[in-house]
Write a structure and sequence with these properties.
The structure is a homodimer of 453-residue chains. Among the domains of chain A are: 135 residues, FAD/NAD(P)-binding domain, CATH 3.50.50.60; 145 residues, FAD/NAD(P)-binding domain, CATH 3.50.50. In chain A, 30% of the residues lie in helices and 22% in strands. The first copy, chain A, contains 12 helices and 25 strands. In chain A, a hairpin with a 2-residue loop joins strand 14 and strand 15.
Chain lengths: 453, 453
């Protein structure tokens, strides 16, 4: 490495950014990758962390570890605060990083369609922290329900609403139903987790709109067989701490999970660049920002069109292909070779899992469902994990869950859980006196004195 | 279960409490176990979570899961706030739980010898949250050091002080040295993790005072071979955010870990009972609180003497034996049988690990060290884990760490890490202008412009 080599700065170590970095391994440039986290994570399995099947470390890898042998690359844990495109500088608080080429791969976050106040009551699932906080919320709902004697409140706590019928919503709804109906029933004495309701709300006419209709129909059937209530053509008009309002009805719920919309990270704002309605930067056919030939935007942050004119979808394989492509463009510049033609997206297929022995897979003209689809989904996901260790641990955890119905990662951590419960801040006031506040369990006769048992 | 059966309430699901519950499985009583967490965890391996070798879920199990087949038992997630011994009631906020027999197994926490203000700068290692927060602190020290250009600050950030030379202190010091000297060196570009200093401070004349002298001496040698600086007969007189003061010297350090003292949980206060200097409840030979034949105190919360008059040590096997014993006493009362004699503690041995291929084991007259000791330690700990799943995952993770020197759980989560770094709140102000704040790495020539690379 000499000071003369071009500096490539990549912001974001998701699928797009990390692939770009790795594709530059043998190019004579100095790469700096900046991320807010010290890890890259496998977002397609985040819902399994949220539903206690996997631990965060099973689906995440330290970025430094992944890149430790890539000598032309430095990793920087920092939060980018702005870009000075004229001076070619990335600002991360008091730290400034100069670049010759800049790749923005900062991803997307939840969109609440103009209602940011819903975020606190209806968390989305984009980050590891989102997953552990949803896990905490779901598990605490059962704990709170076990503790309260108010039957309406119990019913509310055991109602889980998932908003959004895309792959994340379908996977979350299926996984919560499995937790409630298979993993937990033998563990509670006063409530029956079987009675938990899981409601999946989709504004459009069918689940998984990106999939063919037969697979959408299968997904709905499979979810309903698992006890999930599916409501299509249903629009959420408001969310609060005790439930959601649809256009014509209200659902009292203890847990609301938001899987409905995404909005791009503020890369367009940093650049003052043109953006689409979802906040994504409008990029040219070579993924460059118009007027800034040294700045690329890839992944969920980019509004890109394929060479054929079709919009590139916001999924992991697309982000990876874009990362590989911009590395090629940069390499061709640096090594003074012919640049590649415009970006071409190759769609490999669509996968979504529903639950135990149920998934939908579309590969070109092949449609798979049921056990075969589920096996395909499982092998594909294990294959795309990074490193032998996590593949082994995830495969083992899945086999274990499959055989035992148990979930290994059911911890409520970093939570003021118990305190909150004991001090009764989150559960509604219990009827009756302070002392005599607890009724008998469902398999116990009511004794004279109403106490804990 | 009928309302007539005696009610046993057990507070705390650590080794003592959980063993007591399990030993009551076939006794005709109704058991309620209350814990602040929804999980039981294996405290002897907490330091491995703190040093990124294992994930929290590898050493923790949902209490409900462990007890799901034990039909006479209910689990309550709540924080006990007091006990009304005359009315035989446990208070947990607004919830009140009546008992006929009460077992207090609430454990211990760190003691800062009258300096509670040290807690914020020198975290101890008792809870899962402590372990993830120490992990975050240790990993961020390396990240901050990579980012700063101030060489004194870098040296300070790469200095780790562990206070207390008992098993936890020895294990933490060894594990941090392994992280710094084996797992991380290839991953940083500007700092050399090899240069990290790990300093273990012990007030007494030797490490592991509970072990025979030859094993203490071996532990010291093994740590020193791993690059740990051991300072015995050294007393900490103050701790602050930038380091520790000993009687005659000051050590600037970025991370201080407290493994020096413990104090019992407030069970004695709840009872208004006589306590010893460490806050433990003085119990009789049958582990009962004097004057309260229906209240037992066990584990680290109890100051108990063996039938032979020797104090019972605050270790897991002792807590388990006490748990089993009180279950026997309660069963004898309930079933109207002869009660067992006074509690007899059987000491099975002492184990502590130091690092890769180094541990000390004392079993009666057998002393093991080195690779053999390490293997014995590993097998013993895997054996004592609960459930096949966690045994398999822990054994696999250890094998993996052993073969690759990599640590699988190196995530910095739930942290304002990046923000803190970028906003420069925790690292000292960098010299030079805002823009030109970063010097070249250790293997790079200094360029004209002082920037990130």
């Amino acid at each position: 490495m000499t000071a003369e080599r071009p500096k490539v700065v990549i912001v974001g170590a998701g699928f797009g950014g990390l692939t770009a970095v790795q594709s530059l391994a043998r190019v004579p440039v100095d790469v700096t990758i900046i991320d807010r986290h010290n890890y890259h994570y496998f977002q397609p399995l985040l819902y399994q962390v949220a539903t206690a099947a996997l631990s965060p470390a099973d689906i995440a890898w330290p970025i430094r570890g992944i890149l430790r042998r890539q000598k032309n690359t430095a990793v920087l844990l920092a939060d980018v605060t702005g870009i000075d495109a004229d001076a070619r500088m990335v600002h991360a608080g008091s730290v400034t990083i100069p670049y010759d080429y800049l790749v923005l791969a900062t991803g997307a976050t939840h969109s609440y369609f103009g209602h940011p106040e819903w975020a606190s009551v209806a968390p989305g699932l984009k980050q590891i922290e989102d997953a552990t906080s949803i896990r905490r919320k779901v598990l605490l709902a059962f704990e709170h329900a076990e503790l309260t004697e108010d039957h309406d409140e119990q019913r509310r706590l055991l109602t889980f609403v998932v908003v959004g019928g895309g792959p994340t919503g379908v996977e979350m709804a299926g996984a919560i139903a499995e937790v409630a109906h298979h993993a937990l029933p033998s563990e509670f004495r006063r409530i029956d987790p079987h009675a938990a309701r899981v409601i999946l709300i989709e504004a459009g006419p069918r689940l998984l709109p990106a999939f063919p209709e037969d697979l959408s129909a299968y997904a709905r059937q499979a979810l309903e067989r698992m006890g999930v209530e599916v409501r299509t053509l249903a629009r959420v008009t408001s969310c609060d701490e005790t439930g959601v309002d649809l256009e014509e009805t209200r659902i009292d719920a203890g847990t609301i999970i938001w899987a409905a919309g995404v909005v791009a990270s503020p890369a367009a704002e940093w650049l003052g660049a043109e953006r689409d309605r979802a906040g994504r930067v409008m990029v040219g056919p070579d993924l460059k920002v118009p007027g800034r030939p040294e700045i690329f935007v890839i992944g969920d942050t980019a509004a890109a069109a394929d060479a054929t004119g079709k919009p590139v979808p916001g999924i992991a394989p697309a982000a990876k292909q874009m990362g590989r492509y911009v590395a090629e463009v940069i390499a061709s510049k640096v090594e003074d070779k012919t640049p590649p033609g415009p970006f071409r997206y190759r769609h490999q297929g669509d996968l979504a899992t529903i639950g135990r022995k149920a998934a939908v897979v579309k590969l070109k003209s092949i449609h798979l469902t049921g056990f075969i689809g589920w096996l395909f989904w499982g092998f594909a996901h294990v294959y795309f994990l990074i490193g032998l260790r996590n593949r082994a641990v995830v495969a083992f955890s899945w086999l274990w869950n499959y055989l035992t119905y148990q979930r290994g990662a059911r911890l409520i951590v970093d939570s003021p859980a118990a305190q909150t419960m004991a001090r009764n801040e989150k559960i509604r006031p219990l009827p009756g006196s302070v002392e005599a506040s607890h009724g008998p369990g469902r398999d116990q006769a009511r004794s004279d004195r109403a106490d804990w048992r």
